[in-house]
Design goal:
Oligomer: single chain
Shape: elongated
Order of helices and strands: HEEHEHHHHHEH
Keywords: Membrane, Transmembrane, Transmembrane helix
Strand order of the largest sheet: 3-2-1-4
Largest sheet: 4 strands, antiparallel
Structural class: alpha+beta
CATH architecture: Up-down Bundle
Number of strands: 4
Helix content: 55-70%
CATH topology: Butyryl-CoA Dehydrogenase, subunit A, domain 3
Length: 194
């Protein structure tokens, strides 16, 4: 039963990785979404309303929303959990179940750390607005000083990077094998005390 739960949880976490994880909003309007894979690569999908609205997003091909190494580590752990749970189910080895729980716990911790420190898109947007790169080939560079900083802060006050249900579903899928592992360790501790 536990190998099947581990396999289903790992498959669900992998599928949820391809659902929208983050939403980049300006004044409450969703402008860009990122799947778990896009959080790793730094890309995103510009929403149709944002393309048609008054605020135009000029995306350059060299611009990134930041790369998440924690999400990449979580994806590797999820793939390891998937392989290990499949091997456990095929070979009938119960000792691999604990490895599935450990890898799921590792992926869960990586994603919890990611949400605690913030998504890379938030930092990339803040850096891009507050410290814009110097235009290439420009003869004159204008420093707006305090006015530019105040304007940048006002724009940043309207931008939010929020987790979406796909991210929380990934956390829930990883929590199940982690809880099963925790329960197994508690049972071992109780058995040693008896």
């Amino acid at each position: 039963m536990i190998p099947k739960l581990n396999l289903v949880s790992a498959l669900a976490a992998l599928v949820f990785f391809f659902l929208p994880w983050t939403s980049i909003e300006c004044r409450g309007e969703r402008m860009v979404t990122q799947t778990g894979l896009q959080v790793i690569t730094g890309s995103g999908k510009i929403e149709q309303r944002a393309q048609q609205g008054s605020l135009r997003l000029n995306a350059r091909s060299d611009q990134s929303l930041g790369h998440s190494y924690l999400a990449a580590a979580a994806l590797i752990a999820i793939l390891g959990t998937l392989l290990m749970s499949f091997a456990s189910l095929i070979a009938g080895r119960k000792d691999l179940d604990h490895g599935c729980g450990i890898l799921s716990a590792l992926a869960l911790v990586c994603l919890l750390l990611q949400i605690a420190i913030g998504f890379p898109a938030d930092k990339a947007i803040r850096d891009d607005i507050l410290k814009p790169p110097a235009p290439q080939g420009a003869a004159i560079q204008i420093d707006l000083g305090e006015f530019g900083q105040a304007l940048g802060q006002e724009v940043l006050a309207n931008i939010r990077v929020r987790p979406m249900p796909g991210f929380y579903a990934t956390l829930a899928a990883l929590a199940l094998p982690t809880l099963i592992l925790g329960n197994a360790f508690l049972d071992r501790i109780k058995a040693k005390e008896s």
